[in-house]
Design a protein that fits this description.
The complex is a heterotrimer, with 1 copy of chain A and 2 copies of chain B. By secondary structure, chain A is mainly alpha-helical. Chain A contains 9 helices and no strands. In chain B, about 45% of the residues are buried. The chains are: A mainly alpha, B mainly alpha. The structure holds calcium ion (2 copies).
Amino acid sequence: MMWLLLAAGVGVIIGLGSFTFSYGEGGSYFSSDPKSCVNCHIMREPYDAWQKASHHAFATCNDCHVPHDFVGKYLAKADNGFRHSKGFTLQDFHEPIRIKPRNARLVQENCIRCHEDITREITSHGSAGDPSNNCLRCHSTVGHR
Amino acid sequence: NIVERKQEGQSHYFEVVGLSEDVVDPEIWGRNFPRQYDGYRRTVDNERSHHGGSEALPPSKLEADPRLRRIYAGYAFSVDYREKRGHAFMLHDQEQTERVKQFKQPGACLHCHASVLPAFRFAGNGDIMRGFEKVCAMPYAEAHDLVDAKGERLVKHPVACIDCHDPKSMQLRVTRPGFLNGIQALVEGDADLPHLPSVVQWRKDRKSGRVKEGDHYEPNVRATRQEMRSFVCGQCHVEYYFKGTGKLLTYPWQKGLKADQIEEYYSQVGFTDWVHAETQGQLLKAQHPEFEMWNQGIHARSGVACADCHMPYQRVGAVKVSDHQVRSPMLQVNRACQTCHRFDEEEIKARVEIIQNRTRDLAGRAEDALIQMLDAIGEARKNGAAAEGLKPAHDLHRRAQWRVDFVLSENSSGFHSPQEAARLLAEAIDFARRAQIEAIRAAGNKK
Amino acid sequence: NIVERKQEGQSHYFEVVGLSEDVVDPEIWGRNFPRQYDGYRRTVDNERSHHGGSEALPPSKLEADPRLRRIYAGYAFSVDYREKRGHAFMLHDQEQTERVKQFKQPGACLHCHASVLPAFRFAGNGDIMRGFEKVCAMPYAEAHDLVDAKGERLVKHPVACIDCHDPKSMQLRVTRPGFLNGIQALVEGDADLPHLPSVVQWRKDRKSGRVKEGDHYEPNVRATRQEMRSFVCGQCHVEYYFKGTGKLLTYPWQKGLKADQIEEYYSQVGFTDWVHAETQGQLLKAQHPEFEMWNQGIHARSGVACADCHMPYQRVGAVKVSDHQVRSPMLQVNRACQTCHRFDEEEIKARVEIIQNRTRDLAGRAEDALIQMLDAIGEARKNGAAAEGLKPAHDLHRRAQWRVDFVLSENSSGFHSPQEAARLLAEAIDFARRAQIEAIRAAGNKK
Ligand SMILES: [Ca+2]
Ligand SMILES: [Ca+2]
């Protein structure tokens, strides 16, 4: 377990440390409070939209954007933490921000985690893993727009 | 990926009966999948669809628009041509059309109007492709009445579960020889198909040598799930012709799916559907090119499949299933459109109406042009214009007829690709009017 | 809502200078709003736009497509007709066109090519509407060289901040008399405009009596912010004509914004732009109907404004500003389109190209039809066809010319409303070919 936390920490530290970043914002990556995401103004838009979205009452950012097994959770956070910090510091990311394919799959897994029962039929005969027919195609706005 | 799919396919439903390639009757499949069967059966339900009527035949297109009788003069379609309706009727409506009753038709017709694999398998001694070829060549009645060794009728059901699903995994699959041959010709050609990722990939693999000379593009193995959600419909909702004396059902896709590309193909192979009774022009007939027109549209480019709109998910009790009552999406705009388009139902219907009205207005204009062209050619012939002098008019007639028909016989009234439909009608008008001018000229020259 | 806007307008900037109706020079406004001024200034930047060139004049449409010389024969547009370019050039390009140098033009031309409110106010003694009427009637040079009491030139700048913004609140506003009169006629008519909520509301209020007889629709008070984001552009990017001997600049919107409705209006008031040099047909000229075509499109119906695509938000640090370098959205697809469309840049460009290519192909086809029609009418006249006999051809020529021109002079090559553009061209082709046929007939009759 320790090595995992370490790995996560290292990710953020590399991301932040070398790009001069304040501790408060870096730490936000380990919290599940949505407000912690808005420490970066660049996350303001999804945050505002989330407040108006259907899932505001059911799911926070991390419920959808972070894997829910312990190992994956911290690895993902380290990786995303690194990229987001780097992006924020260097301002070198594509705008509008687009979810990365890997993170989109992750979100999809989270949809199914909560909605396993109702989607049983439609995920069992085809392949839910096939990204070409994913939940986001029809429901991309449930979290925010 | 296939393996992954297989594994997932095995669980999650209560297997009441065992299914296999030999079980065609949807009622039996329905014991395992009652929700889907329920929808499937409701395709007999006409009440909520456009045109009403039940056991009787659906409304005649020829009565609704008498210009069509002249436009198709000399062809079976000028005798009987009706509206489509639900899948449950497909076999019945084919048996009852005057086009079958009054005219000689081949077994090829059954390919898209029945669950026909057992007949193909039987006729081919297990080889479906060979059986397909044999059945195509039979007279319609002979094919229709085929019986197996036990004397059981082989052609009994309209499209059935087994035509779109693998009985073991329940995965989508395509089974129709016409489609398999057609898509093969298409992927081997060089028409641009950026919205079909598995086609793009196959072509790459062929270039790199991973696909060997002679290897086929296998949709059931290569296509993404999302592609399959359109391909199953593309088995039947397509333009076709009967090739040669063997009446081999063929999809003319070698040069691409656009009307112009298909026309080019027909010209190259020298195909003609019929000779027009008034003008003796050698013409083509287009049939239900839904798949082709969808391919030109913005929805296809955005990865939106036929099933997304025509079989939208529907909540039944605690689960959501694909609505197997395949029908017009306008009957359930909320499910079919509103997950993607956050406008209210009235607004969405209004948008479809604007598109369809523009298409219908132009189609009417194009038909008028055709009719006036027919008059002019008739006049020229009466005045003794030479066949030679009328050749330009005949060529233009063929091109105009093809484009008008491509839009008229496409069943979405332009919705599947609004600007493309309008473009085709604009060209049709141009060709028809030019044919008229050529005829007037020919008449002048011979007077 | 107005209050809300006010607040937004008032905060968030450092007021370096005080602005008022008397401050026209954008450089001064720019001291308060340096980012917007920066973009505004870059409208001189041609390098990245389509056509290159800088101080010299932009490319000639007539050289690119020589058919146009014949199509406009007898009208100033056959002498000089060029591509548009950035806002910074608008006054210069008008001064330099041969249409001004070789032909007599009225002051009305300035309405859309300069920051013209000071001139209107001066000429009208404070009453802008009266000043507008007076300036319209002046010869171009007189209007252009107007000076105020101190001898200062009144027409100095191309479109300026003050033309779209209230100097106190910075709110968007429309200031152009032509637009104010035009939109008034439009809302009083009964053309369907479901996508303009404030128009729908005004009509309701009029029915219920809340709006009194004679009360005006005041866009600056009633329009939503989103409507204003298109109306400011609709001040100029519209079809127009000069009414009567007073050359009153008028937007022909009484019957609606569609090409057919505008044509009906012109027929009713008996307006003709020019007489065609070859045929003597009485024709109409369409000019940049961007606002009208946008109104027929799916983006307008979805509430997407001109500014969304042509002045997209641009993040500068933590704030977003509207990009005041008004230009083609294809030069910044990520900001202009990708906020709404989740496809990559190549794909979005490909979609626009498909739409524009379809439009251009059909436009070429329609121009060919016009040219062949001109030949036929010429022939008929040469053969001594009576004016009477050519009347049907003339009427059809007018209708064909109007539709071709409506699409050709619209600057998005069909993008703003793809199916509508194709529909107009289809009709144009029909009318041009029928005119050709009428001419052939007329020639035959008189031979
Ligand atoms: Ca055919
Ligand atoms: Ca005009």
